[in-house]
Amino acid sequence: MNIHEYQAKDLFRRFNINTSEGKVFDNENEAEDYAKSINSDEYVVKAQIHAGGRGKAGGVKLVKTPEEVKETVKKMLGMTLVTHQTGPEGKVVNKVYVETSSTIKKEYYLSIVTDRSSEKNVIITSPEGGMDIEKVAEETPEKLLTQPIDPVAGIQPFHIRKIAYFLGFDKNQTKQLSSIINGLYNLYTKMDCALVEINPLIVTNDDEVKALDAKVNFDDNAEFRHKEYLDLHDPTEEEPLELEAKKWGFSFVKLDGNIGCLVNGAGLAMATMDIIKHHGAEPANFLDVGGGASVEQVTQAFKMILSDENVKAILVNIFGGIMKCDTIADGIITAAKEVGIKVPLVVRLEGTNVDLGKETLEKSDLNITTANTMKEAASKVVELI
Ligand code: GDP
Ligand code: MN
């Protein structure tokens, strides 16, 4: 789960990670009053969206006066920002962060992330900050340092010395870096993060080391022990259908193709997408209704697939284990009655209560194409569109 920069910076303050003074606004007059109250000779106005690359896209502006803060906030609110991370449709700016501007002597990169191959959390750092870190990793990997951290021992002084040396920090800067890295590691572990990233970490002209940007991603598996995640969650940043699916307990990912898929089990869902592609078409979604879905849930899943205008045909592929085939059949019929299925529908059922399921579908007067194997189902649905 991602959060906004302003929320990440609030967490930074709580964990004693140095950042500039700032506040979030959804109203330009309050932003102007705030700018007056902190009385700086330069301010930064930053669009709050769940995506990086804002700087290059016009989502980060430096201004001199509270009046300019007001103007800039007004312009940014409601605008659609397109960065290399948002996709071509962009993201609407609902909130804007205002902070005192910093001078920049040099920009660095610092993050902590889970590394599955070493089975440890690793600190990644680079003297090439402020830019696309993937590009640095690809083109100049020697400019990245990856330091695994033993989960029992935690951060040790030699880690800090090694990183500081790599970044070329002097004694004073290293002391500040130490407190930032320790704070970041505490935040990462205490809040069950999957990623904390500072890009750029800067050294100012006065040799102050601070986080200019902040990105925090929580590990969704830890949601049950952090009620706070809920307060930090911004549903406007998510695909509406994916939010809806979460409510119903489905795994759902919207895709760009035109064959809607209703499947039980993640492995079968992957295989179904593969076989659709194999037959030359593209799936419109990944949808795993789970092992023990009820008729109500199956109906809902159908409605979700049908609400996507791109869907030109539906493939239902069920292997009934805990899930019973007749439950799926009842769900299809209920959904057809409630919302109407106007696109071709191919159903392949196998497993528990398969005969009962097939019988139910046959008795209904719905126009359903049945198939006995996955291959047959995929080729039929592709033929139908
Ligand atoms: P991102 O583009 O979405 O990653 O947004 P960042 O917060 O990283 O800001 C982008 C760039 O704006 C930074 O790399 C800086 O060069 C510049 N920037 C941001 N804040 C300040 C500031 O306080 N002072 C100055 N001089 N530049 C800033
Ligand atoms: Mn950044």
Description:
- Strand 7 (106-115) and strand 8 form a beta hairpin.
- Strands 7, 8, 9, 10, 11 and 12 form a six-stranded antiparallel β-sheet that branches. Strands 1-6-2-3 form a four-stranded antiparallel β-sheet.
- With 385 residues, the chain is an alpha+beta fold.
- The relative contact order is 0.09.
- The mean pLDDT is 94.
- The chain has 14 helices and 18 strands.
- The chain folds into three domains: 1-20 and 103-238, ATP-grasp fold, B domain (D-amino Acid Aminotransferase, Chain A, domain 1); 21-101, 2-Layer Sandwich (Dna Ligase, domain 1), CATH 3.30.1490.20; 239-384, Succinyl-CoA synthetase domains (Rossmann fold, 3-Layer(aba) Sandwich).
- Bound molecules: guanosine-5'-diphosphate and manganese (II) ion.
- Manganese (II) ion is lined by residues 52, 199, 213.
- Manganese (II) ion binds at residues 52, 199, 213.
Attribute tags:
alpha+beta; Rossmann fold; 4-stranded antiparallel β-sheet; binds manganese (II) ion; 25% strand; D-amino Acid Aminotransferase, Chain A, domain 1; 385 residues; Dna Ligase, domain 1; binds guanosine-5'-diphosphate; 3 domains
